[in-house]
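ugh ok so i messed up the first submission bc i forgot one of the chains. this is the corrected input, ALL of the components this time, i swear. 244 residues overall. if the numbers dont match what u have on ur side tell me asap before i send this to the collaborators (the ones from the other lab, u know who)
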Amino acid sequence: MSHNTAAGMERENDIPRHIAIIMDGNGRWANARGLPRGEGHRAGAESVREAVETCRQLGVDYLTLYAFSSENWNRPKKEIDSLMKLLERFLREKLPEMLKQNVRLHAIGRLGMLPESCRQEINQAIEKTRNNNGLNLILALSYGSREEIVDATRNIAVKVAHGEISPEDIDTTLFSSHLYTSNIPDPDLLIRTSGELRISNFLLWQISYSEIVISPKNWPDFRNADLRAAVDEYARRHRRFGTV
Ligand code: IPE
Ligand code: IPE
Ligand code: MG
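and heres the new structure output, hopefully the right one now
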């Protein structure tokens, strides 16, 4: 897919700048082992650690992980509570590693809906890693793309109502800049695990031209070699962006 002729540049362009992952299949992973769903989420946390490590090794700039969707609020309270606790613990335990590895944390979604203790861990990790300039790790939490688009539209409408911008100013660039992902380039590669062929309200606007790779593996089984295989597949694709 690379059109670079300069020696040594080939490999670099074959690495996606931004990888987004729909981490699916934790529950099925646990079910298959006769374990409660929570064990699947716990095992999935190790795959998160490995994905971060692999992205660092490959020189990926942005990794966005879909960790909790707007619709996931409809799950049983018990599962939601254990997911929030797991997230809290994950952030607290991984903060030293993120600092050491120069990882900068971001979060997108309606974060105000998360429990207070969870929000504190997130804000603390974002604050403490803000000067890091290695991998950008973006957690999508209480995230729904339709909600994001609605929020952006409302913010733009307020600006129009206040006369700060006029309707003619609204174009794709202005719209993008009002999304939660305003400072983040669009994903080059979208991965979904567990074999499901759907988007489930994830980054609808941003994945317009992303390459999609679906892995049959459940998220806790999706490790270093699997992520590298997905990136290799990406490198074999020919992105056309509507041109010939
Ligand atoms: C993905 O695994 C994690 C979250 C959505 C929080 P699931 O919990 O959806 O697992 P399955 O899809 O039921 O196997
Ligand atoms: C998508 O997985 C959301 C996350 C991975 C956080 P779901 O398991 O919620 O999606 P559906 O219900 O299978 O579409
Ligand atoms: Mg699922």
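quick check: The radius of gyration is 19 Å. that seems consistent at least. The pocket of magnesium ion (ligand 3) is lined by residues 24 (CB under 6 Å).
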